[in-house]
Amino acid sequence: MSTVAWEFKEEHFRGKRALVTGAAGFLGSHLVDRLLACGCQVVGVDNLSTGNLQNLALAKESPLFSFYEADITGWSPPEDTFEFIFHLASPASPVDYRRLSIETMLVNSLGTKNLLDLALQRGAVFLLASTSEVYGDPLVHPQAETYWGNVNPTGLRACYDESKRFAEVLTMEYHRRYGLDVRIARIFNTYGPRMRPDDGRVVPNFIIQALRGEPLTVYGDGRQTRSFLYVADQIEGLVRLLAAPHAKGEVVNIGNPNETTILEFAKVVAELCGCEYRVEYSELPPDDPARRCPDVTKARQLLGWEPKTSLVDGLRETIAYFREILAGKD
Ligand code: UDP
Fold first, then answer.
1. In a domain? residue 198
2. 178 CA to middle of ligand 1, Å?
3. pLDDT digits (tens, 9 = 90+) for 107-132
4. Do 229 and 190 contact (CB within 8 A), yes or no?
């Protein structure tokens, strides 16, 4: 694929109406803020199973924003039309989707179908927030969109991995059968302010442990890798993917191509938190991917997108956020 000459313009969203599912979540709430800043009217929906209304404090000040607390597996918004639907509703951290395994499968299957039907009825462009988990424990590095993945279909992560894979193909079938304008973002590890302190993921765990002067809990030997993208870069990728006229029916990785081991990551977090580097090892959870790193050539060429925020800058913002949360708790 050669680079497409196209420039993203915020006007694409101005004066239009978007539905954002999972609006009170970490990514959903940042997306809502970004769309509002573009002058877009935003309808948010969330059942608050993993989301938090606090995340929408800024959005709620805008006359362009409205919110419904509802489960999207059987819900229809009263608004007549939407130009855009961003479908982000789903538990997304390994701890959350284990706890809510069946709910996760239902939101990604029935919920996705409900929203695809809505997109057809209301004439909306549909963006599915999918995941790097569709690649499972990948045997190919880095992972390009053409890789089919290596997923344990009945393992402890399957409720998420397989239901997102189902959501992807359902979305593609609506595109093939009905000509619906769809786009699929495969979201790799993303971090930033508004992550839940207790969502169990490595970023909040390490930062909170470091700020409390506790040892950082490394699962396994810490040589497994991830690549961490700052939330503002992720949101930029999502709005571009939805806006690009040539991205209809495309599947695009949005992630950071800089791969780091969990041990290296622990050292950076400890240093930026200004604490002594101490780790405590515990067992690696089953099916925990050994390596994960996106090939983002397609996002670069199709969307003119790339990560802008360094790990150090992004972590500084995130650490400041968790410092405030901890201060509020004391
Ligand atoms: N991890 C860790 N300590 C923690 C939490 C997670 O070592 O306190 C590891 C986890 O085993 C995985 C990586 O960090 O290898 C990223 O985990 P996370 O839950 O953030 O997301 P995942 O990428 O696995 O979906």
1. no
2. 39
3. 999 999 999 999 999 999 999 999 99
4. yes
Q: How many domains, in total, are found in the chain?
A: 1
Closest CA to 330 of 212, 216, 203, 214: 212
Q: What is the pLDDT of residues 270-313, one digit of tens each?
A: 999 999 999 999 999 999 999 999 999 999 999 999 999 999 99
Q: How far is CA 319 from CA 66, 222, 236, 324, in A?
A: 30, 21, 21, 9
Boundaries of domain holding 114: 10-192+228-257+294-308
Ligand 1 pocket: which of 201, 207, 221, 223 to mutate (most atoms within 8 A of CB): 201
The answer to whether 191 is a known catalytic residue is no
CA of 203 to the centre of ligand 1 (A): 8
Q: What is the DSSP letter of 150?
A: B
Question: What are the mean pLDDT values of the chain's consecutive 10-residue runs (330 residues total)?
Answer: 89 98 98 98 98 98 98 92 97 97 98 98 97 97 98 98 98 98 98 97 98 98 98 98 98 98 98 96 96 98 98 98 89
Residue 137 domain-assigned? yes
Question: Average per-residue pLDDT in the chain?
Answer: 97
| 181 found inside a domain | yes
Is residue 218 lining ligand 1, measured as CB closer than 6 Å?
Answer: yes
Report if residue 288 sits inside a domain.
no
Q: Judge if the beta carbon of residue 201 lies within 6 A of ligand 1.
A: yes
Find the CATH number of the domain harbouring 117.
Answer: 3.40.50.720
- CB-based contacts of 223, cutoff 8 Å, min separation 6: 261, 262, 263
Q: Is the CB of 131 under 6 A from ligand 1?
A: no
